[in-house]
Each structure stands twice: as C-alpha cells, then as structure tokens.
Design goal:
The chain is mainly α and 179 residues long. The chain has one domain. It is built from seven helices and no strands. The longest helix is centred in the middle third of the chain and has 45 residues.
Length: 179
C-alpha cells in the first residue's frame, strides 16, 4: 500500500486498521517515518517563522548570532525530527500495551507485534490533533488528553475486527475407577 492509502484508511476505516497488523514491519516503519517527516516539516516551518522573535529576545551579540545562523535551522530540523520520532515510537508502544488489554477484554486473539503495527498506524489522527494544537493560535484545550483518548478509541475499534480467541480446551479429568 502507498502512503496516501494508509493515511486515508487510518482516518476512518477500523477494519483496515485491524488488517494492517499483517503488514510487513518495514512498511509500517516507512509510514511512520514519512508521517513523522511531515509533522517535523510543519513544526519546522512554524519554528522558522517565529525564530526571529526568539533570537531577538536573547542577549547574544549580533556577531555571534550571524555565526550560528546557518547552523541553527538544519540543527533545529534534525532535532525536531529526532524528538518526534522517539515520541511517536514510545506512544505507539504504550498504545500497543493498552491494546493488549483491549484484546483480553474483547476476547480477541492478538500479539503485541500485531497490536504495535495497528497502534502505529492508528496514531495518525491523534498526531493530527497535536499538530493542530501546535499550529492554531488559540491551541486545542486538553490536546494531549484528547490525543491519547483518540488513540485508544481507534485501537479499541480496530481490535473489534481481530479474530476471536480460540476457546479454551477443557481437559476431562478421569477419576480413578472403582473396581
């Protein structure tokens, strides 16, 4: 699947989110990096537009600022990309752990590796919520809590399409025969 197909399905198709558990890990990681690159680029643009205000508020001499100026923007982009990547992976891992609980509650069959793939792609909407909170001047009230809630809702809906857990086999206990 292409990036835009994964993105579109992640927005409103929980059945496909559940099917994404079978995607190769490389495809999921590629999606994550493309999505993180997109969010880091948006964040960097906001930084670039407000950097002059931040720099003008410092007490550094103009000569020193001119010296670090060419290094400031690439370093800021790399740093934003690295922080966003680590944040995304940690959030996907925590969401997958919650997904293990959802699997047990709903009586479905799933492993952590499957839930991690589903969680990683289901973080699309929560990440868009955080991006909107960052870009809007007024922000989004309780954006972080709303983001986590959206992640859990998407994973909960996707787990509903996981296969049912196999019934537990009862072993018949043969009592010793009386002769």
């Amino acid at each position: 699947m292409k990036f835009h197909q994964l993105f579109k399905a992640a927005l409103h198709e929980p059945k496909k989110l559940a099917a994404f558990r079978l995607l190769p890990l490389g495809k999921v990681v590629k999606y994550i990096f493309m999505f993180v690159l997109l969010t880091a680029a948006v964040s960097f643009v906001k930084f670039a537009l407000t950097a002059d205000e931040v720099i003008s508020g410092t007490d550094m001499p103009v000569e020193e600022l001119k010296g670090i100026g060419p290094l400031l923007y690439p370093a800021a982009f790399v740093l934003q990309f690295l922080i966003a990547t680590v944040y995304f992976y940690v959030k996907a891992s925590i969401a997958a752990l919650a997904g293990l609980g959802f699997v047990k509650i709903r009586g479905k069959r799933g492993e952590y590796r499957h839930l991690w793939r589903t969680a990683a792609i289901s973080l699309t909407v929560p990440t868009l919520i955080l991006m909107a909170a960052n870009l809007l001047p007024a922000g989004v009230p309780y954006a972080s809590a709303l983001s986590w809630a959206a992640a859990f809702v998407y994973i909960w809906m996707a787990v509903g399409y996981y296969p049912k857990a196999a019934p537990k086999k009862r072993t018949a206990h043969n009592s010793p025969s009386r002769s």
